[in-house]
Specification:
With about 130 residues, this protein is mainly beta. It is about 0% helix and about 65% strand. The chain contains no helices and twelve strands. Strands 2, 4, 5, 6, 9, 10, 11 and 12 form an eight-stranded mixed sheet that branches. A four-stranded antiparallel sheet has the order 1-3-8-7, with no helix packed on it. A hairpin with a 4-residue loop joins strand 7 and strand 8. The radius of gyration is 16 Å and the shape is elongated. The relative contact order is 0.31.
Length: about 130
């Protein structure tokens, strides 16, 4: 079983910074794309930033230049550094990862399941004006 556990949310004034972390644990063979989404009340969940296993990144236009996504593959962890925060960044932030899990060792090699998308439990980020 695979779990994603987020940390780092909280309350901050406009212009401030926060750093979110998300650690994946469990029977992990490999992690492909890791990403952060957010959902504000009354809005749909939206992609904030994503990063591939090779380090290629993609950002929503609304956070480009203010947020930075990074990952530590050895720790199975993804980070989101959020600077110059605005009240409109207020939302629940969710970690997302596409993960291949171990399925067994036979015929002299490790085998894994097809990629499965996992979600964290969410962490609240509130930016006051």
């Amino acid at each position: 079983q695979v779990q994603l556990v987020e940390s780092g949310g909280g309350l901050v004034q406009a212009g401030g910074s926060l750093r979110l972390s998300c650690a994946a644990s469990g029977s992990i063979f490999s992690i492909n794309v890791m990403a952060w989404y957010r959902q504000a009340p009354g809005n749909q969940r939206e992609l904030v930033a994503a990063i591939t296993s090779g380090g290629s990144t993609n950002y929503a236009d609304s956070v480009e230049g203010r947020f930075t996504i990074s990952r530590d593959n050895a720790k199975n962890t993804v980070y989101l550094q959020m600077n110059s925060l605005k009240p409109e960044d207020t939302a629940v932030y969710y970690c997302n990862a596409e993960i291949d899990s171990f399925s067994g060792y036979y015929s002299g090699t490790y085998h894994h399941t097809p990629p499965t998308v996992y979600w964290g439990q969410g962490t609240q980020v509130t930016v006051s004006s």
